[in-house]
Automatic annotation (TrEMBL):
Keyword Phosphoprotein: no
Protein name from the UniProt record: Uncharacterized protein
Keywords per UniProt: Glycoprotein, Hydrolase, Protease, Signal
Record-linked Pfam families: Peptidase_S28
PANTHER family, sorted: LYSOSOMAL PRO-X CARBOXYPEPTIDASE (PTHR11010:SF120), PROTEASE S28 PRO-X CARBOXYPEPTIDASE-RELATED (PTHR11010)
MF terms (GO), sorted A to Z: dipeptidyl-peptidase activity; serine-type exopeptidase activity
Family assignment from sequence similarity: Belongs to the peptidase S28 family.
GO biological process: proteolysis
Native organism: Erythranthe guttata
The keyword Cell division belongs to this UniProt entry's keyword annotation: no
Length: 494
């Protein structure tokens, strides 16, 4: 997607797939937590789960992380908590999913984080990224359906290796990973007894959700903090264009925003600013974080304070620079900003670019007259031209609703779905494409008015507001009920 939802993509082996174990302990740390530990392992995965031509016998090594320090073991049928990996390195997501580590001791749960194919170290074609990302022929195996089949294969093989056939599996995911968690529960109900799908925009497709919704929420986030802040940002786009049109205007903009001496254009500058507003709204967490960039608590409020503060200067550009620095330079280490920075610290590109051109056609680009961004309509043709130019393919905007269901989802899932939690924070622009009301007694929506992007999955801190504590308590209570029901029925059939 143009804005990734965070973040957001086997040779047939007759005998059980091989597992390569690495004995060394790797660690991640969170500034509010003790160090967390995991073992890095690899699973020999099938490249193509759905075809039987000779090429489908290719395999690749799929990485997963495992933490067994809390696990009660197979003799007690203790549960297995699995994170369905997003569009990026799995260690990044493990580091930002403290809820699983903090909940595991209560349930004596084994923790498993599975990396999504084509991301991190889980690259097909011998791990050669140049080959794997070369063209549509090799990238064609990168899809959500293939990823879900990967997860099912890893989970079942792991349970078999651990002699834990009766250990129940609960899947967790945030953003694209949350979508995958919900879909895995629906597609593979024999693999997972329940799913916590946090900030999962499963309805943001094919005009099921308005293309204006995403940016309307960003607009409301800023406007709720300060009407002046909203107005300054809203009028700034025209001021940028007018300044750029003047002799020496681009140099004025470059100096105003402390842009490094590289290629300068209004398109890049406006994209740079838009990214700051979008990601700040998305991660408007109530405590300081380092998820995308180092940022303070309530960064939207801090941006607006910077714009409203007379010390930020008198002209619009000085104010915008101060605001953008909340996202790009909160530590104060940057001396200038590179508008064409191609760094990819979390390993999102180029895999997500492909997914956004094939099936993940998320509608986010429309702007009403009241939008904080310039008024515009969503244009499928823009996406089409990009995808034709880069991959020579046509996107499939209707495929995800066809494959997983989205239209009339409330009445559809009421008939056959069960044991899914959909969490959404209403300050998160992706919440507009989420499930915001209960579907049944066991397919429930937890909605937090002040919540941001999968904030419930983050490590808890002493500064967490009471509403966030209550969200997590409710999630734990629901998961506890799923497990109790499972063990009750397991006893009935034993």
């Amino acid at each position: 997607m143009t804005t990734t939802p965070h973040g957001f993509p086997s040779s047939i082996i007759i005998q059980p797939a091989a597992e390569q174990q690495h004995d060394q302990q790797l660690s991640l740390s969170d500034k509010e937590s003790n160090q967390i530990y995991y073992k890095e392992k690899f699973f020999t995965q099938i490249l193509d789960h759905f075809n039987y031509n000779p090429q489908s016998y290719h395999t690749f090594q799929q990485r997963y992380l495992i933490n067994d320090e809390y696990w009660g073991g197979p003799t007690t049928n203790s549960p297995i908590f699995v994170y369905t990996g997003n569009e990026g390195r799995i260690d990044w997501f493990a580091q930002n999913t403290g809820f699983m580590f903090e909940t595991a001791p209560r349930f004596n749960a084994l923790l498993v984080f599975i990396e999504h194919r084509y991301y991190g170290k889980s690259v097909p074609f011998g791990g050669n990224k140049e080959t794997a990302y070369a063209n549509s022929s090799t990238l064609g195996y990168l899809s959500s359906a293939q990823a879900l089949a990967d997860y099912a294969a890893v989970i079942l093989d792991l349970k078999n290796n651990l002699t834990a056939a009766d250990s129940p599996v609960v899947v967790f995911g945030g953003s694209y990973g949350g979508m995958l968690a919900a879909w895995l529960r629906l597609k593979y109900p024999h693999v997972a007894i329940g799913a916590l799908a946090s900030s999962a925009p499963i309805l943001n497709f094919d005009n099921i959700t308005s293309s204006f919704t995403f940016n309307n929420i960003i607009t409301q986030d800023f406007r709720s903090e300060s009407e002046n802040c909203y107005k300054v940002i809203k009028r700034s786009w025209q001021e940028i264009e007018e300044t750029a049109a003047k002799p020496g205007g681009l140099e004025i903009l470059r100096k105003s925003f402390k842009i490094c001496k590289n290629y300068m254009s209004t398109d890049y500058l406006e994209g740079w600013l838009g990214t700051a507003y979008t990601y700040t709204a998305m991660t408007d967490y109530p405590t300081p974080t380092n998820f995308l960039n180092p940022m303070p608590a309530y960064p939207v409020k801090q941006m607006c304070k910077a714009i409203d503060d007379p010390k930020s200067g008198n002209n619009t550009f000085e104010k915008l620079y101060a605001a953008a620095s909340i996202y790009y330079n909160y530590t104060g280490n940057a001396k200038c900003f590179n508008l064409i920075d191609r760094s990819d610290p979390h390993g999102i590109r180029p895999g997500w670019n492909w997914q956004a051109c094939t099936e993940m056609i998320l509608l986010t680009d429309g702007n009403t007259e009241d939008s904080i961004f310039p008024a515009s309509n969503y244009s499928y043709n823009d996406r089409l031209q990009y995808c034709k130019s880069n991959y020579d393919i046509d996107p499939r905007p209707t495929w995800i609703p066809t494959e997983f269901g989205a239209r009339h989802i409330h009445r559809v899932l009421k008939r056959f779905g069960s044991n899914i939690i959909f969490f959404n924070g209403l300050r998160d622009p992706w919440s507009g494409g989420g499930v915001l009301k209960d579907i049944s007694k066991s397919v429930v929506a937890i909605v937090a008015k002040e919540g941001a992007h999968h904030v419930d999955l983050r490590f808890s801190t002493r500064e967490d507001p009471e509403w966030l504590r209550e969200v997590r308590k409710r999630e734990v209570h629901i998961i506890s009920n799923w497990l109790s029901q499972y063990y009750h029925t397991l006893a009935d059939f034993s």
